From TrEMBL:
Domain called PKD: residue spans: 131-173
Compositionally biased tracts (Low complexity): 21-37
SUPFAM superfamilies named in the record: PKD domain (SSF49299)
Protein name: Unannotated protein
Region spans: Disordered: 1-58
Biased composition (Basic residues): 38-50
PROSITE patterns: PKD (PS50093)
Organism from which the protein derives: freshwater metagenome
Length: 216
């Protein structure tokens, strides 16, 4: 046995014959499995989205602060509108007044209204007096400080010259003064109320009667 050209040669002899050389093929090598290298992808971190911060601010409400001079007047005016009575209208004769005959008018409004009201913790004494402006519906007006009355003592009276339907309007204007902590002041401005009432005036019928003779 020997090697020749990288090959192991084994010789075997039988008898005296020539030596036969046998060549032994090298054992095949097992193929190696290919090494697969994994490519590691780089991890991409997502970029953080910017946070949008919205700040909700409440609107600033500025309250109007009334001064001491204007606050009582405005509050007092509101109180006066609530406390004042509404004027009612009446007339006499109440059924079918005649033309050329005086009709007496009056209102149920008192000639003096006194009341204590509370404004911002203060007691305010109020004194009011009315003024009456009568519109009789035929273009005639009458201004007075008296409320009128029925027959025969009423000061507000009017005679219509034509028969028809009229609307009486009474405008009542209030003015006066108020007292706070012993200090008295005039009430600024005037408060007015309007009342209305329809009236129908008729003509007196004419009657003819035979003459009456007196004998002695």
């Amino acid at each position: 046995m020997y090697t020749q050209n990288g090959t192991i040669v084994i010789e075997g002899r039988k008898g005296t014959g020539p030596i036969q050389k046998k060549s032994v093929a090298p054992a095949p090598r097992k193929p190696r499995a290919p090494v697969v290298r994994k490519t590691v992808k780089p991890t991409v971190k997502p970029k953080p989205k910017p946070k949008v911060v919205t700040s909700t601010k409440k609107p600033i409400v500025k309250k109007r602060v009334r001064t001491s001079s204007s606050a009582p007047a405005t509050s007092l005016s509101d109180k006066l509108v609530e406390m004042l009575p509404t004027a009612g209208i009446a007339y006499s004769p109440s059924f079918s007044p005649l033309i050329q005959v005086p009709v007496y008018f009056w209102s149920d409004i008192p000639l003096l209204v006194t009341k204590n009201i509370e404004i911002v913790g203060e007691i305010v004494e109020v004194r009011l007096k009315p003024t009456f402006l009568w519109h009789f519906g035929d273009g005639v007006i009458f201004l007075t400080k008296k409320s009128g009355g029925p027959f025969p003592d009423g000061e507000v009276r009017h005679s219509y010259s034509r028969a028809g339907h009229y609307v009486i309007q009474l405008i009542t204007s209030w003015d006066g003064e108020f007292t706070v902590q012993g200090v008295t002041s005039r009430i600024p401005g005037k408060i007015e109320s309007v009342s209305a009432l329809p009236i129908s005036v008729v003509a007196a019928p004419s009657r003819f009667s035979p003459p009456v003779l007196f004998k002695r």
